[in-house]
Amino acid sequence: MAITQTIGNSRTAWNGSAVALGLMKLRTFIALFAVLIFFSIAAPNFLSTANLVLMSKHVALNAILAIGMTFVIVTGGIDLSIGSIVGLCGMVAGGLLLYGIDLQIGWTIYFNVVEVILITLAVGVMIGAINGLLITRLNVAPFIATLGTLYMARGIALLSSDGRTFPNLVGKPELGTTGYGILGSGTLLGLPLSIWILIAIAAIASYVARKTPLGRHIFAVGGNERAAALSGIRVRRVKMLVYMFSGFCAATVGLIISSELMASHPATGETFELNAIAAAVLGGTSMSGGRGSVGGTIIGAFVIGVLSDGLVMMGVSSFWQTVIKGLVIVAAVVVDQAQYRLQQRVASLQLARTV
Length: 355
Description:
Layout: H1 2-25, H2 27-42, H3 49-74, H4 82-99, E1 101-102, E2 108-109, H5 113-136, H6 142-159, H7 182-185, E3 187-188, E4 191-192, H8 193-211, H9 213-223, H10 225-230, H11 235-261, H12 272-282, H13 294-313, H14 318-354
Antiparallel strand pairs: 1-2, 3-4
């Protein structure tokens, strides 16, 4: 009788824990559904076509940054520099379009729009590589390394124009520098190009994470770096690649924003890193590394985007918006830790049932 009761209690505990764990894994979908329902009631015209298109463009920018951030966090790192990379890369693109490169010998090199985009992306990747070198070769903590590049990139952006804006990036036909605005304001099949760019980056990132050895190595490094190194994984190379990818994503966002505004400002991208971290963590990426998904991050970006735009439409102060975003990040981390403990409990109960 006692043994039967114990087995029954164990089965009940396992079922209850499994249900709770399932709900925690769906927390991002539940949060997205909740905020959509709330703002559709509280904010007039929230679900209008114009607002949905505008919100999707905002979400796309944050999601692109958050995808790069996800890979970094999965390896156990952090990238605080992405907001500054956004601003610097926007200034690089604007400067190349307006002024080209002065060789100081009476000659100036101008680049067409495609070349400007490629150069700007290369700058973002290079800054990511600098982060990777600081972390892997000089053993600087990721927080400190990327905090340093945050200030350096922002300072260079300010120095490039003495803090002024590069306006009117229309370009000149005779120099082949026209057409830059298509990247930020163009559409394809009725959707903004920024959304298609997000789809492309998300598809590639998801494939890499799920189907390639590099993806498995990224998760292995985050799960246990020492064990990954002993198993033959080139940990330094993996970390270099994820920081370079994060820089690439930030440069992409810098291009889209400057193209949409047809102007570049050195302060662009301030606090963008916080939204990216919030989206990744809310989407299930563990701050301790080893766990995360591209799909979850995109849903997390939608939650942050809907929350931000909904609060704006309700007339909530930007100061309160910052407070609410901070609470969301803290809550997401607390739930993530609770999910981890619950997973351990479910695993132990499952083992007990098997025995």
